[in-house]
Design a protein that fits this description.
This protein has one domain. It is built from four helices and five strands, in the order H-E-E-E-H-E-E-H-H. It is α+β, with helices and mostly antiparallel strands. A hairpin with a 4-residue loop joins strand 2 and strand 3 (45-50). The chain has a five-stranded antiparallel β-sheet. 21% of the residues lie in helices and 29% in strands.
Amino acid sequence: MSIPTPEQIKKDARLPENANFHGWLIHNPECDDFLFKYKDGAHVISKKWCRLPDAAIRFNRYTRALKVLQNLELDNLAIIVAAFDLGSQIIVIGPDVFQERMSLPSDNPFRAGHLNR
């Protein structure tokens, strides 16, 4: 699988010119949360999650996010998404193959659909 660049994702998603790449995030679509903190030691693996993408761990390189995802054994639970800062909010964009998982109903009060209620 070829990894698109942040610039290509920005162009394909038709984001505004002022949208800045925020980083690669590890996202659990079923729980609608993001990896916040982790510890990967010889005898212990621990993970903490958060609801806001702007509080999540940001990876500058996709390959680093992928390595962490694999080391934490999250391959079947989480996905890597691109995050962009629009000034007033951080948006996340996932690969098209995960569109259905990212569109699952959510009780996350910070999701865009909840903010309009």
